[in-house]
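Same chain as my last thread, 464 residues:
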Amino acid sequence: MKKTIVLISVFMLIISVLNSYSQSKEYDKIDISTYYSPSILRQQLDLTFDLSNTFSSSNHNSVESSQNSFNWDVKPIYNKYKNNRSIVSDLNISGSTVGNLRKVSSANMTNSQSIISTFYAGYDMLLYSKSKYHLILNALASYENEFGRSKSDLSQDGNNFDKNNNFLQLNAGLGFGYGRIENVEDARQAVYILSALTDKNRMARTLNEDEIFDFAKVISSVKNKRHLDSRLRKIEEITAVDSFLVKKSLKSGSDATYFSTLNDMWEYGALANRKSGQILQLSANPGFTSKNEDTYYEFNNNLTVKNENTILSGMVQLKYQYEKPTNLYWQHSIVANIQYTYTDENELHLSSTENKFWKNNVNATGEYTLGYYPNTRTYFTGTISANSMFESSDMEGQSINYIRKNQAILTLQMFYFFSPRLKLSANLALNYYNYEIEFNQSAWNTKYNYLYARAGVKLNYSFF
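reply #2:
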């Protein structure tokens, strides 16, 4: 595996070096970190529908058995994103229905069914003043219902049951902050397009930074328009980019070389995310969670098991994020986060036994990433991150345990795009983990440290 990753890394490096030599250097000194997006309103609705069936047959000690399982999964997802100088908002609404019908034939027959239905709605909003000070508002609601039924030919079998579980989560957040993070990959794409056309001698002159940013805003605007037909969308996008160059009298040719180059840079020029800016935020998030488990067994005097959990929580978080593209090829990213969470949980078991739990959790995380983006198809990232967590738990006023966890990770990643939809990635990670837990009974105490390495290669294809 390590040899494979080394070979892939060398392959990506060679391609990136060869490609970088072919890029025009006229725009290398453009500072994309000062770019900001125009007003954007983007809406997206996705629907995933999945069906599968599995059949298996076996013979064990002359006993034949078979199993047939039919599964389905339906997921609608809606997203609405808005970004202008005074507000940045993100609305996400989704649902799903996941089902399973199973039939097992052996010494006895068992039929079971399971349906899990979920609903999720989340809204995040930043309200900006004329400066970079902003108000943070967010809300989240999530509901899940799990229905299950199993029937067996044997009346005393534990597979005879009905269950109905419900899970509800509500969260709200309020905070304030200073700063703003901008997506600047469209500015980088504008430079890619202009550099490529310059190399092909299809540009009449070199653009200054203001003209490049005007060009990038055209790119940002046309990308976020909604289209049901992907072909019509592509036509409008290329037309808008070409019209800008025509209006500014920047073209020196409109032949096949011009349009094929423009199309190539449009497809590949913004596959990697680039960001710029910094932000400091302080927020508080109260939450409510309810869990209800209800299972009825048709044996052992028709036992009914009920568990009810009510959880109240509160979180205070301080976050800092810094993004800086030092030039067209290098990116620095820093994220620091510290949060405190208090949890008050009430557990009612079998409608008679009640337990109360309290938890205090402090979690601190720091992360630094260095990114290298030599061309449109290849990029590399290296990340150093550290996490430290302390948690104390109490039940009915008595201490249960203390948990301490420290973790440090070094991650190296490489990416190569065979096409806009087909991406190859390789990664290598070194992880140090320190874990310690102390119980009120010292005989149960646990402490260990370990260091491990992980390497992997992944091929990803995006249908949409």
